[in-house]
Amino acid sequence: MPTRVHEFAWPDRVVVGTIGLPGARTFYLQVRGGTQIVSIALEKQQSALLAEKIDEILDQLIAVEGNPFSVPTSTPIELVDNDQLEAVQEQFRTGAMSLGWDPTTAQVVIEAHPISDVDADDNDESLEEDGANEPEMLLVRMPVGTARAFAKRTREIVGAGRPTCPLCGYPIDADGHICTLPEF
User: Fold this and answer.
1) CA 12 to each of CA 21, 71, 113, 170, 182: distance values in angstroms, whole numbers, following the listed order
2) DSSP code, position 78
3) Angle of helix 144-159 versus helix 44-62 axis, rounded to 10
4) What is the pLDDT along the chain (184 residues), one digit of tens a residue?
5) Is 65 helix (H, G, I), strand (E, B) or coil?
6) DSSP of 117-130
């Protein structure tokens, strides 16, 4: 069965956002191009790593003599996006992701694949004829300014969670925290 690819070559919007309160948030990578919106769930750690690696790619490109791709050193003010997620209808929960660079279009490329069921048979009868369970993936290509803005917003979203305990490093819940450090 062919894979359904949700492809965005020049998205109008690409952001990471959350639904829920700190400690119980669900992270989403949401992409919009025209009227098409795709939202995929991902882990907080995946979000943080994605932002970190995008910044690494962009910083390496800045170091190329003459900065031929016009990579900004910070987020261009016109690309700042602090709006909430649009209506979220989860396409899939992200498993494997890849990140790359396309020098022909000067775009950062993100591929996201759903978590795979390692126990699924090749002849899995749960795949319905209407295509509801067909394999799918998300492919996003974003220009360097958008990528820089994406990384900044993602770092801010990840950092807006529960504060960490200065003693043990575990998150402090809204209803309190009892540090369980061993006595010395």
Assistant:
1) 27, 19, 21, 37, 51
2) G
3) 140
4) 788 999 999 999 999 999 998 888 999 999 999 999 999 999 999 999 999 999 999 999 999 998 899 999 999 999 999 999 999 999 999 999 999 999 999 999 999 999 986 534 444 444 444 445 678 999 999 999 999 999 999 999 999 887 778 888 777 777 777 775 555 5
5) coil
6) -TT--TT-TTS-TT
d(CA 40, CA 28): 5
In sequence order, the 6+-apart residues with CB closer than 8 A to the CB of 146 are 11, 14, 79
Q: Evaluate whether 179 touches 41 at the Cβ level (below 8 Å).
A: no
Encoded amino acid at 22, one letter:
P
Extract the tokens encoding 133.
């369970």
